[in-house]
Design a protein that fits this description.
The structure is a homotetramer of 215-residue chains.
Chain A (H helix, E strand, L loop, with lengths): L10 H20 L9 E7 L2 E5 L13 E5 L15 H10 L5 E5 L2 H10 L4 E5 L16 E7 L5 H13 L6 E4 L3 E6 L2 H25 L1
Parallel strand pairs in A: 6-7
Antiparallel strand pairs in A: 1-2, 1-4, 2-3, 4-8, 5-6, 7-8
Cofactor (chains A, B, C, D): Zn(2+)
Protein name (chains A, B, C, D): Methylthioribulose-1-phosphate dehydratase
GO biological process, one term (chains A, B, C, D): monosaccharide metabolic process
């Protein structure tokens, strides 16, 4: 499957994004956070485009050919490859925050189980953990870090609308869980997005351990 | 131990199946799913034969010499090697579904414990997990994925009869657990069989975590 | 520290035992079963001698120089190195069973916790697990595999006496736990000893998972 | 960022400390004990100086350039790099115990959760574990090993004062936890500090497993 780039986009720019996505995917797959070809990853390429993983590929063995170009409405650009159904959740981030350049969506066991446990309440509130400081903007363990848990659906526009509603209500958002499904988080660069993902996985694990041991 | 092939079977065909089995076995052993020489793996070679692991070998270090040929009634073909006692459960799959070409049987701690927990009920019903979509034919987390748990026995014909009875009752079957023992699953190719196995391990882990944390 | 061998023992015989011990130790250390320089391993060399790990070495990085010769009463032979205080538990196995040639003692978290949990009862009884068949002499999941848990003491003769008392009462013994401490198991060759150790770790994990989830 | 050394300090001395710190950090990061750029590590260089990790670096990929020199009051020496806010907890150890040469601070999930669980009680008392003998000065599982849990604060002088108060009360101290945060431990050389850290992680895991299973 050949990827044709727009005339205004250099091959080396696209390739650098594709390589960064594939690197991140391999490392997250090695942690077991992308079971059975699940999960997807993207990076902004310019004001109008992003690079994203092609649907259904094994995330532990991605190369440049497994990454495709889309516009910020989720349409394939210069390729017949099919973007993931969940592409709309990536482009939503790029459209709402011009400074965000990387979106990571994984499916770890911890993320899946936490989403089920807290689905009825609708949010997970983290407080008292030093590692909350790994989330940009947080400077103390005393702050409250709130992660919403949205109901799962196979109809993407409903998910997009839930995220929009949260943001339109003026609430801070650094990541969200989808019930029975996984996590979405992002960053101003891929290092920040990965730091957020790593810290959130750790915090969710700690919170569930504490729940298990306190009962 | 020398493996003689039937005149109608090419060496390269058998070797390709043996290599695919050994590769899968090494990777599953590295995950800790084949403790203490347990587990067995097979692939269909043609309409009348399958290749299967020889009993008692360390699944982390298989080579072509650890794979033998059997007919679809479980008899050794062209070798004095002894197939596993559980061979009958592999050939049953190949006889009932002409399109199935790979059967994987592992013994992970998760599979063993889940089988004990749900043995009295006789089935595990999975619902609400996005990863159910990794099982061929499932397109929504809302579907119910039912995995039967059959009582263990050292008498193989009884196990074969339990599986036949389930299928003869017209119930769907993508995998089954044996109480205190492990899981069997299969696929139209070995990639599908591995995706099923990986997804089921993940789903069983999640289900047990949820049970532990919800109580 | 130089190891002088008795005139009747070939260097190559000692070296082969030392290498087998170091290999096993490295692999068990990689699993996290030998935390903080704990654990010890030995192999019979001949009717009167065994090779054993020198006390206090990091089990993940053993070489031939970390293995010493002892007689079957636990005295150093041909070296000024100090054998572990627990050497008496190794030589007891070699004296009581002429056919046993390898003894493994590890300290995994599972072994340590299981020993505390079952110390008051004095034994762990395993039943219903297919993997019991990995213990030599067991042919069915229906059998009962009983592992005694002895109280811990820093006075080795008391531990030796407890094991002797169990055996003198005519009870079968394939392994034992020491409370808060770890496991001892053995085999007719090191492959059997390792299979026993791997199967027992798995069975203890499963039994504790089942206890946690059934409550 | 260039590190200028005092005239009295050889480059090779500083480099050997920096390499030992980077080695330890890489190995502890590989265990998952330093999530999301957290944790810090130091070694004494001479009577007046220590080498310490520069704040915010990924602990899995440290080189000599990620280590800086400080005096024993926590001020940067010969560099414009910023030492971690928690540097004061390292220099406190070097000032109070002239024989201590290495301090390790990590953030594992086990350490974080244990600190939350025992924060209200203020200490964790370990007893009955053979591995307590891995802590220098302990010769029996019967001894009590007490690890204080101090409240977390973003104001370092308060933490330093809590540690001083514990020590000034004449209580033994081999390590301490900070609530929701992690562990500090140390040793006369880096091997001792790592043995302490490894043993404490193991003991905290065992203690929490026992609590979970005994309830």
């Amino acid at each position: 499957m050949t990827q044709q780039l727009p005339a205004t986009m250099s091959q080396s720019l696209f390739d650098s994004r594709a390589d960064a996505i594939a690197d991140a995917a391999r490392q997250l797959a090695a942690l077991g956070w992308t079971p059975a070809t699940s999960s997807n990853f993207s990076m902004r390429v310019d004001d109008e485009h992003a690079a994203i993983t092609i649907s259904g590929r094994d995330k532990g063995h991605l190369g440049r050919d497994d990454i495709m170009l889309i516009d910020l409405h989720g349409h394939a650009v210069g390729t017949t490859a099919r973007p993931s159904a969940e592409t709309a959740l990536h482009t939503q981030v790029y459209r709402r925050w011009p400074e965000m350049t990387a979106v990571l969506h994984t499916h770890s066991r911890t993320q899946s189980v936490a989403s089920r446990l807290y689905a009825a309440r609708g949010t997970i509130q983290l407080q008292g953990w030093e590692l909350q400081k790994a989330i940009s903007g947080y400077t103390s363990h005393d702050s409250v870090l709130e992660i919403p848990v949205f109901p799962n659906t196979q109809h993407m526009p409903d998910l997009v609308a839930q995220v929009d509603a949260w943001l339109d209500a003026g609430k801070p958002l650094h990541a969200y869980l989808i019930d029975g499904h996984g996590i979405y988080t992002w960053g101003r660069d891929i290092a920040e997005a990965r730091r957020h993902l790593e810290a959130l996985e750790f915090l969710l694990e700690c919170e569930m351990d504490l729940r298990r041991l306190s009962s």
